[in-house]
Amino acid sequence: MTTGGKGIPRLQELSYLEVAARAVARGSSFEDIRRELVDHMLRISQASPGTGNTAAYRNAKKNSKRYVNNVSEALKELMRLGLVHRATLPASASSVDAYRGATFALTASGETWVDLLIDDRPRGYDALCETLLRNHPQFKSFLVTIGAFGESERQGFEVPLMRWGDLPKPRSRVRYVQTLALHISQELSKNRAGWAADASEVQSAIASYVQAIVDRAWSRERPDPLPRSQDFVNKCEEAAVKLAFTKAGAPLDYISMEILRRWTRTLGIANFSYHAPGSYALRLWPTAELSRSEDGLEIRRRVGEVWRDRIVTELQRAHERVRRADSGGSPWLPIYRVRAAVCAELRVLDSEFDMALLELLRSERGAEVPYRVNLDQSSYGNIPPSERPLIVSTPSATRIFKSMTLVPRHSGTASEGGIQ
Question: Nearest to residue 51, comparing CAs of 388, 401, 399?
Fold first, then answer.
């Protein structure tokens, strides 16, 4: 595998770079790094309930051909960034046998970065952010587009979307594309999305993108690549996202956008959701302001005491907005929807919302607000894969909560709120 190129690597988690770099510093072999990375994937999965089957990671540890590409991609990126000396890597799992015992070496910059991670992990990730900006122009363009970097007045970026069920009957794929294009153009006319296109341009872009996928499958004599309506809708979303970033001056394919939104969440500089109040859309917003100074990259994140107080203050209004939009009438609301409402309004991270909510439950914050929070482990509807439940850990147990409601303080609720 070569290690050149400036595109966004297919690296789902930035933490893979930390795991690989620390392992290289210890002199670990390729196979040792693979095992450490599998262990890390397992820990991530265990900390994010509902994201997958952890047994797959446990079984993979013994199979030297599993997750080879993940290791190669992490090492390849470390080499691109100048943190690990360049070396050849297995191009696929079938060629891994020749590399199992291979070892790698950190550059001087890599040694400095690993030392910084050990001494001050947050600063280590800030340093990684600066390195990524230097080496990946698309990463910088993404941040500029959503308003996190430079002098942009943007406070976010959105791509209007539409569910298949939103299309009136009789439904067809042609009608869906036409209706989606009209819907997107109407939403863009409100001048808040961060990009512009008319209905004909949107319709042409989506139709040609989807048709190209079908044509490629037919040319290779493969089955229908979009057998379900949801498969078709997903590809229309990919096309809309690609068009949106291209029109905004930051050409990105859909997978690169997915990876960058994960990276920026990890770095604490941006957030996203499909479930903030308003019309259905993918919304991305900055959670920090990045700028250059004589000392290098400055990152001012919206975190800490002041922002958690603002989250607690905003919670009641957000809860009411979500409740009004929910036609079910239940006082119990999905936590992920309330979280999205608060975070999109204040432009903060999901993790800040969760910490503020937990502090409110423990009566460590929000003594002045007129409500208390009740939590329930039951789910009122499915939790989308892009969203997480609230995880409450105590010395004795870890509990997962999916729903919440607010009650007046004078209702007799316990001081720390209620847990069902």
Answer: 388
Distance, in Å, from the CA atom of 125 to the CA atom of 107, rounded to the nearest integer, reads 18
As a whole number of angstroms, the distance between CA 32 and CA 24 comes to 10
Domains of the chain, CATH where assigned? 15-135 (no CATH), 139-299 (no CATH), 305-419 (1.10.10)
Specify whether the CB–CB gap between 24 and 84 falls below 8 A.
yes
Using DSSP, state whether 8 is helix, strand or coil. coil
Q: Say how far apart CA 240 and CA 225 lie, in whole Å.
A: 19
DSSP string, 122-158: HHHHHHHHHHHHHH-HHHHHHHHHHTSBTT-----EE
Whether pTM > 0.85 for this model: the answer is yes
Residue 374 one-letter amino acid:
N
Half-sphere exposure of 220 (CA within 13 A, CB side): 9
The residue ranges of DSSP E strands in 19-151, in sequence order, are: none
Q: Is the peptide bond before 331 cis (omega within 30 degrees of 0)?
A: no
| Distance separating alpha carbons of residues 270 and 259, to the nearest angstrom | 12
Q: How far is CA 376 from CA 39, 50, 125, 400, in A?
A: 31, 16, 35, 9
Any idea what DSSP says for residue 386? T
Residue 6: predicted pLDDT: 62
Residue 348 has pLDDT above 50, yes or no: yes
**377-418 pLDDT, tens per residue?**
988 777 888 788 999 988 888 899 999 999 998 644 444 456
How does pLDDT run across 193-216, given as a tens digit for each residue? 999 999 999 999 999 999 999 999
- Going 326 to 331 to 335 to 341, the CA torsion angle's sign is positive
The tokens describing 336, both together, are 């992920």
